[in-house]
Amino acid sequence: MRKKLAAGNWKMNGLSASLTEVSALIEAHPAPVCEVLLCPPATLVAGMAAVAAGRIAVGGQDCHAKASGAHTGDISAAMLKDAGASHVIVGHSERRADHGESNADVLAKAEAALTDGMVAVICIGETEAERDAGTTLDVIGGQLAGSTPEAATGANTVIAYEPVWAIGTGRTPTLEQIAEVHDFLRAELVKRFGAEGEAFRLLYGGSVKPSNATEIFAVPNVDGALVGGASLKAADFGAIIEALSQA
Ligand code: 13P
């Protein structure tokens, strides 16, 4: 049985005052049935971990492939862990696009996370042009194969399918399109990792809201969500946690 995971990605949003949303979330959902993860900007990891006190997991949004060194402005997995993070998102499409990260870069970051005993949340997803061209499964199959470490297991790695065109747009794929991709991802993981492939959590991300969460969570092989905008407010993210707990 895969434990469901509600993950929030705050992206470049949030100041220390925003941590009140985390205390409000924990107060309103003291014992969620699903796992809950919030990934704030690096500046808030330690503060959020203090507020969370182990009741929800805290993650980074990116890490460098190396543990330390002359890389001004970068943060290593070990540093995120030291600040209280247990997870780290790698390969988000905004980093693949804004920072030119390749599958090989994402793979190296994911390996760094695993080496430091963290859980890597590896993001993959097609652009609208790729979907229109009918190459969605080729693209995400290549990203999955190229970004997932050989040492990945269901315990140390989560895969997030986030179609680029659905992020922050209010548009989502049809439930059939989500099912097609998640079934494909499951089959690819089983092909590569054998029975262990059944243990990986597959998250859907892209315009998940309280209003569409229940129907998305009913799709087979959707084990949770990676939520952007709707994770910033305790009321919205809380409603998504409730929807997942009942799925
Ligand atoms: P939105 O939920 O704001 O569309 O963002 C999704 C996302 O990119 C999460 O990583």
What is the gist of this entry?
This protein is an alpha/beta fold and 247 residues long.
Describe this structure in words.
- The chain has 247 residues and is an alpha/beta fold.
- It has one domain (5-245): Aldolase class I (TIM Barrel).
- Helices cover 40% and strands 15% of the residues.
- It has helices at 19-28, 45-52, 77-82, 93-98, 103-115, 128-132, 136-147, 175-193, 210-217, 234-245; strands spanning 5-9, 35-39, 57-60, 87-90, 119-124, 157-161, 201-205, 224-227.
- An eight-stranded parallel β-barrel has the order 1-2-3-4-5-6-7-8, surrounded by six helices.
- Strand 7, helix 9 (210-217) and strand 8 (224-227) form a beta-alpha-beta unit.
- It starts with a strand and ends with a helix.
- The protein binds 1,3-dihydroxyacetonephosphate.
- Residues 9, 92, 162, 167-168, 205-208, 226-230 line the site of 1,3-dihydroxyacetonephosphate.
CATH superfamily, called what?
Aldolase class I
- Helix and strand composition category: alpha/beta
The strand order across the widest sheet is 1-2-3-4-5-6-7-8
Shape by Cα distribution: globular
Ranges where pLDDT stays below 50 over 5 or more residues in a row are: none
C-alpha end-to-end distance: 13 Å
Average pLDDT figure: 97
* CATH C-level: Alpha Beta
Q: Rg to the nearest angstrom? A: 17 Å
Share in β-strands: 15-25%
Total domains: 1
Helical segment count = 10
Biggest beta sheet attributes: 8 strands, parallel, barrel
Q: List the secondary-structure elements in sequence, H or E.
A: EHEHEHEHHEHHEHEHEH
Helix content: 40-55%
CATH architecture: Alpha-Beta Barrel
Quantity of strands, as a count: 8
CATH topology: TIM Barrel
- Give the distinct bound molecules: 1,3-dihydroxyacetonephosphate
